[in-house]
Amino acid sequence: KAGVTQTPRYLIKTRGQQVTLSCSPISGHRSVSWYQQTPGQGLQFLFEYFSETQRNKGNFPGRFSGRQFSNSRSEMNVSTLELGDSALYLCASSTDRLNTGELFFGEGSRLTVL
Amino acid sequence: LAKTTQPISMDSYEGQEVNITCSHNNIATNDYITWYQQFPSQGPRFIIQGYKTKVTNEVASLFIPADRKSSTLSLPRVSLSDTAVYYCLVGDKRSSYKLIFGSGTRLLVRP
Fold first, then answer.
1. Which of A21, A66, A83, B90 sits at 20 to 30 Å (Cα–Cα) from A60?
2. With contact defined as beta carbons under 8 Å apart, do B50 and B65 qualify?
3. CA distance A70 to chain B (A)
4. Do residues B65 and B80 make contact, with C-beta atoms less than 8 angstroms apart?
5. Nearest CB to B43: which of A31, A45, A90?
6. Per-residue model confidence (pLDDT) at position A42
7. With an 8 Å Cβ cutoff, is B80 touching chain A?
8. Could you tell me what percent of chain B has a pLDDT over 70?
9. Could you give the angle at the alpha carbon of A18 between the alpha carbons of A48 and A42, nearest 5°?
10. DSSP tag of A85
C-alpha cells in the first residue's frame, strides 16, 4: 500500500512569489491535514480537509490556503511568500471522520524562501 | 486541547530500556494519548495510542495511571536507530481534531 506522497520534495522561491504543494493521501483515506515545521516553532497545524471541505483550521494568515479534490488529493498554496515561510511542510492522511488518532505523514516538502 | 509537557532531551545507551514521561494535567474525558516518532527531515510516525492502563504493541508500551494526568512511553532495548524526537499528544479521537505537537523529547541513543 503506497504511503502519503508529497511533491515537490524540495523547492526554492523568492520573497513575494507564491507556491503550491501537492499531497496524495493513502488510498481510501479521506482526511488530509497540513502542518508546518520550523526549528523555532516546531510542528504547527495548518488545516484539515475531509471530503473536499475544510473542517479545521490553525492560526495561520490568509496567505496560507488549501483545497481537496474529489479523489482526496490535496494542495496547499502560500501566496506572497515571506522569509519566515521557509519550513518543512508536512501532509498527513487518515481514514475517516471517526479519527483513530493515527495520522500517516508524508516525507514533506522543504520550502526555502530567499 | 490538553497541553502536554515532556522532557526536552534524554540520553540512553543501546540495549537499555527508555521511559519518556509526558504530563497532561488537563486531559479531558474523551481524550486519548498518542505518541509519534520523528526522524530528521521525515514526517512523524505513529507509535502507540491508549486511553488508560497499559497498551503494548510490537515496538513500545504505553503506561497510563488511573488519573490519566500523565503517561509513559516505554521503549525496550533501544538501538541507535531509535534516536529521534518523540511527541506526546492528547486529543479526542472520536471526532476530528487538530493535533497539537509540543516540543517533543529528543532521544539520543549512544553505542
1. B90
2. no
3. 19
4. no
5. A90
6. 85
7. no
8. 93
9. 50
10. G
CA dihedral A3, A7, A9, A11 (to 10 degrees): -170
Mean confidence (pLDDT) of chain B? 90
Q: Is a pLDDT exceeding 60 seen at residue B95?
A: no
Question: Inter-chain contact A42–B102, Cβ cutoff 8 Å?
Answer: yes
Closest-CA residue of B relative to A6 is B43
Q: Tens digits of per-residue pLDDT, A35-60? A: 999 988 888 989 999 889 998 888 99
C-alpha A49/C-alpha A9 separation (Å) is 21
Grid coordinates in use for B96? Answer: 476530528
- Judged by CB atoms closer than 8 Å, whether chains meet at B49 and A44 is answered as no
Radius of gyration of chain A (CA): 13
Q: Does A9 touch chain B (CB under 8 A)?
A: no
Are the CB atoms for B71 and B89 separated by under 8 Å? no
Burial (CB count <10 Å: 0-12, 13-18, 19+), residue A43? buried
Amino acid identity of residue B71, one-letter, is S
By CA distance, what is A33's nearest residue in B? Answer: B98
pLDDT single digits (tens) B40-93 = 889 999 999 999 999 999 999 999 999 999 999 999 999 999 999 999 988 876
| Residue A85: predicted pLDDT | 97
